[in-house]
Amino acid sequence: MADSTRVSEKELERREGFIRAGRRERHLIDPFTWSYPWKGAGAMLGISVAALYLQNRWNKKPYYYAIVPRLILVGAATAVGYAAGALREKHYQTRDAVIEHYMQLHPEDFDHFNDRSGRSFSQVLLPWYPRRTQYTRYD
Amino acid sequence: MPGSMSKLGGLANGLLACSRTGTLSNQVRGVVHKSLLKLPSEHPEPWDYKHKGFNYIDGLKDDTQAHLHQNSKLIVIEGNIGSGKTTLAKQLADQLGFVHIPEFRMDDILIDRYGNDLRNYYSKFPARYRLPDMSMFYKNPRGELSAAMQDRIFNCRFDQYLNALAHILNTGQGVVLERTPHSDFVFANAMRDKNYIGHEYFKHYYFVRKNALPQLHFWPHLVVYLNTPTNKCLENIKRRGNTDEIAVVDERYLKTIEESYKDSLREYRNHSKILAYDWTKPGDTDAVVEDIERLDLDFFEWHSGDVMEEWNTIVDSIGWNGWRQYVTNKFDARMLAFDGIPKHEVGELYTNPRDTGHFLHVMRKEVLKSPFGYGYIAKNGDHQAGITAWHTGHHLPEPWYEYYFREAYYDDLTSHETSLDLDSDSYDPDYVHHHH
User: Fold this and answer.
1) Would you call B77 exposed, middle or buried from its count of C-beta atoms within 10 A (0-12, 13-18, 19+)?
2) Does A61 reach chain B within 8 Å, measured CB to CB?
3) Nearest neighbour of A68 by CB, restricted to B378, B387, B414
4) What is the per-residue pLDDT across B138-188, written as a single tens digit (0 to 9) for each?
5) A68 vs B: CB within 8 A
6) Partner residue opposite A61 with nearest CB, options B390, B395, B419
């Protein structure tokens, strides 16, 4: 395998770590670094508040119109978003645990993962001979 | 025979309100003069529906039947223009202890809570939004908006009738009402006859009427018809001294109304008791009160006609509370009565959407001077009301409104221009002078 396609172990670790969910450092201003529950809660809160604002503007109402029942609804929607995020997190955690457990039980099924640089293209592609149809003789 | 009738009446009565008052359960006692009305000490205070409305939760707290008594009746005064309805209605209400609801006038919806008279802004409104009031109509009866005015009047009479019903069911006090949506067609007939409204709208009017009237559910207990000859009406109108009215309301106009009232009474006869008086010379209110006291307005039995049926077939307090919510809220009734009726073929009612946009611009920039609707304008003295608003059908801070087309309609009005320009920055006062 050509050395140009090989990268160091350290670089491989970095790439894996960057792509894995939840590994990035949390920033308050970047919702994409938040945990799933807070992402869900934030999305629902944002949508609700935006809808509330537009609803008020459209109906010629000030901010305080029906604000009490509406805040209760917004709170409920935010809680639903949080719960949905928590469910999503739980789902992925369970899935990963099941797979890791299986990999522990059957390490022989995953030998090919040990070679992290994989095969070169010369090992992947079948041999190819240029044959052009317009030169084919049909007798 | 009257004895057995009254026994049955008492029986029907016993299913209703008066069973509480033991002495009344064996005999029929109809409407009485207010001095003779004896209410038991536990009779509840009137429910303040004008400020509180009446919703499902209120229905658990307040029983409708407890409010109702022998004088909880709807009396309607009908008659030609200038026949003397208002005078009689006032005196009747006074003697019986009823509330008098005068006939609907366009002024009731053209002046808003801040005292803005929309007619002062008509020069700024697009033409379609300059709805005539009665005096404008009398000045120019052949105007393009006569049909729109008649449409609006029918709509408001519908609201007014529901107000009368709501007053009875919420307070137990009877109501004397002048004219109803049921008899409003007499004016449509007269206006059509004089060609003030067109054929398309005339057909549309009867279609809407047919759709709307059943949604009112209750018919009046009693209709008092004042039969005044047209020449006498003309005299009364001349005495009022409005020259425009004198010019428009002529002999033929009044004759059409008189003839149409015969149809109206024929229709009322199936549902209500009728007292018709020759009112050539204004009669004595005391005599009318005596006649009313002699009537049995509580009797109903199955298979003997529909008179008083709606009032006597509600079986329990849940039913009464349901109808009380229906007539107090008005949202369901209005929706069932008026929504979904196509009017694209009624040229007289057509509204250019651009006109609606300009109307909203004017309302925001000139009339209310605020992007917010009625009841939410702080600089006009509105407090932060409506923070717990939880009612359906309209967006006003108060749960109850008198006429939809006074203020509530404004919140429902939308247009493309104003939806993208919520502060009306694109308001162009010269729009009304453009050629459309």
Assistant:
1) buried
2) yes
3) B387
4) 999 999 999 999 999 999 999 999 999 999 999 999 999 999 999 999 999
5) yes
6) B395
Domain for residue B118, yes or no?
yes
Q: Is B64 helix (H, G, I), strand (E, B) or coil?
A: helix
Determine the Cα–Cα distance for residues B125 and B127; give it in Å rounded to an integer. 6
Q: Percentage of chain B surpassing pLDDT 70?
A: 93
| Full domain range(s) for residue B376 | 352-433
Average pLDDT of every residue of chain B: 91
Sign of CA dihedral B341, B346, B352, B357: negative
A119 part of contact set with chain B, CB < 8 Å: no
Domains of chain A, by residue range, sit at 11-135
Nearest CA in chain A to B370: A60
pLDDT tens digits along A88-124: 999 999 999 999 999 999 999 998 888 777 777 888 8
pTM of the model: 0.86
Convert the pLDDT of each residue in B109-151 to its tens digit: 999 999 999 999 999 999 999 999 999 999 999 999 999 999 9
CATH number at residue B246: 3.40.50.300
Please report the pLDDT score of residue B28 as a whole number: 57
The DSSP call for residue B363 is I
ipTM: 0.76
| Interchain CB contacts (distance < 8 Å): A and B | 42
Q: How many CB atoms lie within 10 A of CB B95?
A: 17
Quickly list DSSP for B370-414: SSS-TT--GGGT--S--TT---SS---SSS--S-IIIIIHHHH--
**Nearest Cα residue to B220 out of B310, B101, B352, B318:** B310
Nearest CA in chain A to B411: A59
Together in a domain, B277 and B406: no
Angstroms from A70 CA to nearest CA on chain B: 9
* A66 with B388: Cβ contact below 8 A: yes
Number of neighbours of residue B425 by Cβ within 10 angstroms: 8
Cβ <8 Å between A59 and B410: no
Interval B75-109: pLDDT, tens? 999 999 989 999 999 999 999 999 999 999 999 99
User: Any CB–CB contact under 8 A between A64 and chain B?
Assistant: yes
A135 touches chain B (CB under 8 A): no
B284 pLDDT exceeds 60? yes
